[in-house]
Write a structure and sequence with these properties.
The structure holds two protein chains of two kinds. In chain A, 40% of the residues lie in helices and 27% in strands. Chain A is of the alpha/beta class. The longest helix of chain A is centred in the C-terminal third of the chain and has 16 residues, at 168-183. Chain B has a two-stranded antiparallel sheet with strand order 1-2.
Chain lengths: 235, 287
């Protein structure tokens, strides 16, 4: 198992946002966490990234415990977070944002190559590289956010609501990109409110309700589950 | 005409000195969101380091400026790690109280240790040039040139170096900066040290061009806040422009009318700027 979350708990003050959640991600797999706003999906990703300290449970990466490690150590190990709402450094240029994605990389040659690879993947960003990233359209900002994460040459990508606020056409592009990234060997934890999209991309799905897992299983089974269909697929 | 040349040069050198202090303050605020009232104390201590090094011990002037910057960088970094770090993320009033306490402790000890008499630092550069009846001292010119070079160097550092990018990233969004692998705690002490060192260098200018007393930090803090508010919180360019405006007002109005009127006029200018641009000349909207 590449990444394992066991009985994870997260508290914000007295509020328990995550109430004992367990997940597992195999090499080359895409898993998805679906559920309504406030179900605790983002908190799980933040806990894996070390941005919030879990109040209980364990996070294991390649068999070693990583919970309680600071975010920079988690990034160093190859787990990179594409946060909800892109969270670009809006006052900084596209190029500077990408450069920061490879902050821990001391090899300037590899960093320059990485920026070129992102530009090859998203040619529009090459044209806009010297513009403040806050001036870009939503779709382009998502490209920068994903490009920035790829700059760290991750093994695991934690994607928080990548489809949020994008046009249908852009959502298709992001979906195609996620498929492509998996082919390139990345393992992905995908958090989505768009359950239909997420379950079509993922191998395995977890349905979260107020901090606990209500249901889990292979994506195709969840897609045909009448409960899921009614609550999350708008059927 | 000659008067204006002279007032102009004085205004530029004063403005650059103010700008150095204000840039330091705005850097510390921008990165850590703390109000560092003891910033003027760093300015004062920086001046006294050079005073003891050069005026008392007779060691080389420029080396003394560098030593002052390094010592105060270290002091700022230690203050951040020991006093402000534990308060990070808590109510801003806590760090405010700590920095106010620092003002009293540092300026009080300063008076005990350094004495309360006014002191001056002999400069490394002498002579000057008569230009159209105005006497322009080389000292002022050299010191102005050095401070311009420092401000440009800091600006380039923030634009070009990876650490500079990280400082700006932490200022804009600390959580997302951490997700890039940036150790925000490290950026905090670097920014605190750098900001304090800028104030120390301004203190060296003050001691050389004017005179110093251990109580001068308070007014420096007030002026730095005026400039930062006028230029826009967190903006280096704003602090530079704001510093120049205040320096010019101080120089021209103090020479032609009086120092009190200069202070009143500076506040009037700030009021006017804030009426038309509430977040300052180059300010962003901080949430």
């Amino acid at each position: 198992m590449l990444l394992e979350v066991k009985n994870l708990r997260v508290h914000y003050g007295k509020v328990e946002a995550v109430k004992g959640v367990s997940l597992s991600l195999r090499q080359g797999q895409i898993i998805t966490l679906i559920g309504a706003n406030g179900a605790g999906k983002s908190s799980i990703l933040k806990a894996i990234s070390g941005l919030v300290r879990p109040s209980g449970g364990e996070v294991l990466y390649e068999g070693r415990r990583i919970d309680g490690q600071p975010p920079n150590r988690v990034v160093e190990m190859g787990i990179v977070n594409v946060p909800e709402g892109r969270r670009l450094f809006k006052l900084m240029t596209v190029r500077e944002n990408l450069r920061l994605g490879a902050y821990l990389d001391r090899d300037s040659r590899r960093v320059a190559d990485g920026i070129e690879e992102v530009f090859d993947r998203f040619p529009i960003l090459r044209e806009k590289q010297h513009q403040p990233s806050g001036k870009l359209s939503g779709g382009q900002q998502q490209m920068v956010a994903i490009g920035r994460a790829l700059m760290a040459r991750p093994k695991v990508l934690l994607m928080d609501e990548p489809s949020l606020g994008l046009s249908p056409k852009m959502i298709d592009e992001i979906a195609a990109l996620i498929v492509e990234l998996r082919k390139a060997g990345l393992s992905i934890v995908l958090v989505e409110q768009n359950a239909n999209l997420a379950l079509h991309l993922a191998d395995h799905g977890y349905v979260l309700e107020t901090g606990s897992i209500a249901l889990e299983g292979p994506s195709d089974r969840l897609l045909s589950d009448p409960e899921v269909a009614r609550a999350y697929l708008g059927a | 005409m000659s008067d204006f040349l002279q007032m102009g040069l004085t205004g530029v050198s004063l403005g650059l000195m103010y700008a150095l202090i204000a840039i330091g303050l705005t850097l510390i605020f921008g990165v850590m969101r703390i109000i560092q009232y003891a910033h003027g104390e760093m300015f004062m201590l920086g001046a006294f380091v050079l005073y003891y090094w050069h005026a008392e011990m007779g060691l080389p002037y420029w080396a003394g400026v560098a030593v002052s910057a390094v010592v105060i960088f270290g002091l700022g970094a230690v203050l951040q790690m020991v006093l402000f770090k534990p308060l990070h993320g808590k109510n801003i009033l806590y760090s405010l109280a700590v920095s106010l306490g620092l003002v009293l402790i540092i300026s009080g000890s300063g008076q005990l240790i350094f004495g309360t008499t006014t002191k001056g630092i002999p400069s490394a550069v002498s002579g000057g040039v008569l230009l159209g009846g105005a006497y322009l001292s080389y000292e002022r010119m050299v010191i102005s040139a050095v401070s311009i070079a420092l401000i440009v160097a800091l600006w380039l550092f923030l634009r070009r170096s990876v650490t500079g990018l990280a400082i700006r990233a932490v200022a804009e969004d600390p959580d997302t900066a951490a997700l890039q692998g940036i150790r925000t705690g490290r950026i905090h002490w670097i920014a605190f040290g750098l900001g304090s060192a800028m104030a120390a260098i301004a203190g060296c200018m003050m001691g050389t061009l004017l005179s110093i007393v251990p109580t001068m930090g308070f007014l420096a803090t007030i002026k730095a806040f005026m400039i930062v508010i006028m230029g826009g919180l967190g903006s280096v360019v704003g602090a530079l422009v704001g510093g120049m405006i205040l320096g010019m007002i101080d120089s021209v109005v103090t020479t032609t009318i009086s120092g009190d009127i200069a202070l009143i006029l500076s506040f009037v200018v700030i009021f006017l700027i804030l009426v038309f641009r509430p977040s300052g000349l180059f300010g962003q909207n901080w949430d």
